[in-house]
Amino acid sequence: MNAPALPDDRLDMVFQALANRTRRALLRRLAKGAEKVTSLAEPFGMSLNAISKHLQVLEAAGLVKRTVTGRVHTCALEATPMATAEEWLSFYEEFWNQKLDSFAEFVEAEQE
Amino acid sequence: MNAPALPDDRLDMVFQALANRTRRALLRRLAKGAEKVTSLAEPFGMSLNAISKHLQVLEAAGLVKRTVTGRVHTCALEATPMATAEEWLSFYEEFWNQKLDSFAEFVEAEQE
DNA sequence: AGGTATGTCAACCATATGGTTGAATAATGT
DNA sequence: ACATTATTCAACCATATGGTTGACATACCT
């Protein structure tokens, strides 16, 4: 049920990989299905090389798996490391819930 | 209930802030209660200045709130931005659950 | 065999990161 | 008044990041 707890340096890499909107967009893209590098790169106003590098970052973080068939590299989402990241974050749920609750109360009180 | 959805560049900053084990450790520390900079810095094998910078990163990301009383800066955890990060991640839950389930099945089958 | 498509590698550039040391600012204690 | 404590600011350093361009290696098509 709970994720396989990455070591600290892997968690560094995962959060680092997520700390860029282009890479987050790539992951969202891959959530709809595996795709090859060129077609992944197409919608971004950026060189193919740049996207290639981003994909390498994602791959190093374990968030993307690559299958090479001939000259075409097919990238697929590998979400499991995110489970560890989310698990790390979930530790703080009580804190933000508390905050959000008191904000909700405030709004409610305001409406008298 | 759902978090106030940070803009992309704020989310960049939050994930970036989390992409460092020292900063994650600082947050864990602050989860136990607010503390001043010097005492926060003490257990890390690192200069006070380094910690001061890390705290600035956390503050810029909105993960730490600072209250200055005289010369002492008290830092407190501000977890709400993490809610947005977790929300972003939760989109992928179905993907990793699927993976973890099939792994569980594999283990089960293995034990015949 | 020759040309085209897919993708990486290598070098470069500007800026950011994570750390250091040393000096500066401001509040407290004696 | 003077020393001490708390903390930041400034400059520096090495390395990482996010992007570029140009060249290269393969695979596919005719």
Task: Summarize the topology.
The structure is a homodimer of 112-residue chains.
Chain A: H1 8-18, H2 21-31, E1 35-36, H3 37-41, H4 48-60, E2 64-69, E3 72-77, H5 80-90, H6 93-110
Antiparallel strand pairs in A: 1-3, 2-3
Chain B binds a DNA duplex (30 and 30 nucleotides) through residues 16, 20, 22, 36-38, 46-50, 52-54, 56-57, 68, 70-73.
Question: TL;DR of this structure?
Answer:
Two copies of one chain form a homodimer. With 112 residues, the first copy, chain A, is α+β, with helices and mostly antiparallel strands.
Give the tags.
3-stranded antiparallel β-sheet, 12% strand, 112 residues, alpha+beta, DNA-binding, homodimer, 62% helix
Describe this protein's structure.
By secondary structure, chain A is an alpha+beta fold. In chain A, 62% of the residues lie in helices and 12% in strands. Chain A contains 6 helices and 3 strands. Chain A has a 3-stranded antiparallel beta sheet with strand order 1-3-2. The longest helix of chain A is centred in the last third of the chain and has 18 residues, at 93-110. Chains A and B meet through helix 1, helix 2, helix 5 and helix 6 of A and helix 1, helix 2, helix 5 and helix 6 of B. The structure holds a DNA duplex (30 and 30 nucleotides).
